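User: Reviewer 2 asked us to show a designed sequence for the structure in our supplementary figure. I'm pasting the structure tokens here. Could you produce the per-position amino acids so we can include them in the response letter?
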């Protein structure tokens, strides 16, 4: 078991320990200061801070790695968010192999995607967003090594109260529940040479492949959803050096014909001519 995996497990265990101590303290009336109950929580964030600072590339800290060119995982007009073209780690942490991860949102035309509302509506149906149910495509000849389905597509978190709930409550619960709850319905493809592609927040019941299947570039393998730690329907995509996101480090990528779009940049992509459904 890798040190990164142990760190992730220790983080979740210490968080659960904090909750257990607080509940026991309240129920049993222990006499010491309740502040001592926060010790596991402090240790948890010390552990995850160290884990998150471990090198962002499989080759080690300070070693630049050439991006791996792969096909684009979506087709049509999309925009980028949390892009590694703007910063790394793109999502603020190296954990879960996210150093070079990117989020993409469907933008078929200006105004098609509902705007963020400060207070109202509190949430929207996933069907209100153009990314929902959009095809997700294989980026290379690969083998499916992880296929997780069954988590619900929840309402959006596109208001200030909804976003705070996601960050402070829902996200913490998912973190303690394991990386599969963060990613929601997801796929991991083995691209060969120790590189894996992960697709997260997929629509429940939309996976068209299962573990062990071979896929081709442009093949429809699932559909975009809003499962897991997601504020609205979108695709989270990343390359990594291990099929287990808890143990993985990020691998840089570039999309064939597109590159790596920056935050807010729109791009148009078409599936390869070899694509099949």
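Assistant: Here is a per-position design you can include in the supplement:
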């Amino acid at each position: 078991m890798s040190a990164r995996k142990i760190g992730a497990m220790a983080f979740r265990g210490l968080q659960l320990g904090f909750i257990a101590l607080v509940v026991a303290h309240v129920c049993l009336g222990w006499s010491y200061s309740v502040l001592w109950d926060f010790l596991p929580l402090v240790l948890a964030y010390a552990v995850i801070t160290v884990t998150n600072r471990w090198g962002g590339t499989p080759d080690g800290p300070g070693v630049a790695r050439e991006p791996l060119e792969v096909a684009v995982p979506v087709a049509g007009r999309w925009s980028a968010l949390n892009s590694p073209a703007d910063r790394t780690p793109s999502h603020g942490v190296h954990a879960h192999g996210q150093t070079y991860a990117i989020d993409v949102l469907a933008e078929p035309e200006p105004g098609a995607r509902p705007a963020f509302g400060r207070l109202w509506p509190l949430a929207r149906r996933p069907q209100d967003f153009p990314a929902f149910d959009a095809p997700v495509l294989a980026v290379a000849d690969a083998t499916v090594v992880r296929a997780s389905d069954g988590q619900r597509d929840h309402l959006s978190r596109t208001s200030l109260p909804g976003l705070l709930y996601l960050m402070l409550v829902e996200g913490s619960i998912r973190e303690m529940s394991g990386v599969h709850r963060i990613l929601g319905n997801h796929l991991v493809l083995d691209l060969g040479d120790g590189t894996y592609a992960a697709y997260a927040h997929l629509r429940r019941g939309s996976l068209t492949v299962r573990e062990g299947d071979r896929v081709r570039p442009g093949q429809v393998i699932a559909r975009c959803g809003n499962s897991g730690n997601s504020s609205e329907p979108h695709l989270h995509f990343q390359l990594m050096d291990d099929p287990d996101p808890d143990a993985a480090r990020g691998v840089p990528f570039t999309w064939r014909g597109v590159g790596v779009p920056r935050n807010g940049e729109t791009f148009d992509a078409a599936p390869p001519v070899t694509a099949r459904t």
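For the response letter, you might also mention the following. The first helix runs from residue 3 to 28. The longest strand covers residues 185-192.
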